[in-house]
Each structure stands twice: as C-alpha cells, then as structure tokens.
Amino acid sequence: MGRRLDQVTSHPSAMLLGAQLLQVLAWPFLGGSRLGGAFLGVIGMLAVGSAVLAVRRTPHVSRVVFFLGAPTIVFTLLEAIFADSDPIVLVSGMLHAPFYFYVSYAMLRYLLHDDVVTTDEYFATGAAFTVVAWGFAYVFTVVQIVWPDSFINAEGYGREWFELLYLSFSTLTSVGLSDIVAVGEQARSVVMVEMMVGVFYIAMVVARMVGLTMMRHRR
Predict the structure, then answer these.
(1) Within its chain, how far is the Cα of 149 from the centroid?
(2) Which residues pair with 182 in a beta bridge?
(3) With contact defined as beta carbons under 8 Å apart, do 35 and 80 qualify?
C-alpha cells in the first residue's frame, strides 16, 4: 500500500491535472448545489496547493501558498453559502486569481529550471495550462461584478462561474468555440491578454518540451 502511495505522490503534477479535470467533469452534477460547489472548490484548492508545494519545496513558495491559499479556501466556502452576495464573490475572485496565477508561475519555473524532461514535467505542462485557465475565469468573475454588462450569451448578461471557465478555456486554447461573448471594453481587454498568454504558452512551453523530448530520443 505504501509503495503504491509513493508511486502516486511521485507525480504531483499528474494529481493536480487529474483533480482539475475531475472538477470540470463533476461540476455539472455537483456545482448546482451550494455544498457540492464548496466541496469541489476546496478540493481543487487543496490539490493545487499540495502540488505546488511538492514541485517547488521552498520556504518562499510555502508562505505565498499559505497566505493566499488559506483565505481563498475560506472565501470558497463563503461564496458557496452566500452565492448571491456580490461583495463575497468579488473578494473570492480577487483572492483566487492571484493564487492561481502564482501557482502557474511556480509550475512554469519548475518546467524551465533545467534541460531534463521528466514524466512529471509532462503532466505539469497540462496542469499549468489548466491553472492559468482557472485564474482567468476568476478574473472574468471580478470584471463581471465590477462591470455587470461585460459578458453575454443568448440568455443575456450575468454568466455563471462555470460558463466563464468555459470561456476561459476556449480563449486560452484559441478554439473560439464559446457561445459567451465579451462585450464590455474591460472584459475584451482581459480576453485579449488571455489570448496572448495562450499563444505564448504553446510557443514557449509546449514547443520547448517537444524540442527537449526530441533531443533526448536522438541521444
């Protein structure tokens, strides 16, 4: 049993990627309830924090994850209980966004710190991508509260968080499949920034991983 546990924990980025994808698949079934939404949010936060601490075990990262992650988890629960309270949702988004962006920064440092590609780094490539998408989804949430008529679809303004996550993924991947449109100027500016981030991620991170993999096979 202990040996199997060691095998699982030896790939923290795989655990993170699996937790993020599990959240996406489970949200339509559990996200509709306050308890289910809170459970998914806290589990996701704990998965991200534990993965970063496993990847970048330094005091500085530990402090940042603790001081940003702890209040974010609290507001995740408050947001689930008081889902209609704009101030709580706003503060929650303002805590979630920098937390996820810092996590993505730490994971990118982990990916770029040497020229050796490990199995966990392959998983980290996908995990860091999902974390960036999460971060921008919370930025969209903040923008929507501060500027209410920022995002629209056929049903009108004021989109749910899961819909904004869907928009974030479609923007970051540049597939353009989302039925949600940014109509406010502030929203469009943030969407444009995410488009640039998605392009640079593919060009710099993914291309580098592919190149290092090809060099390893040639040797």
Answers:
(1) 24
(2) 151
(3) yes
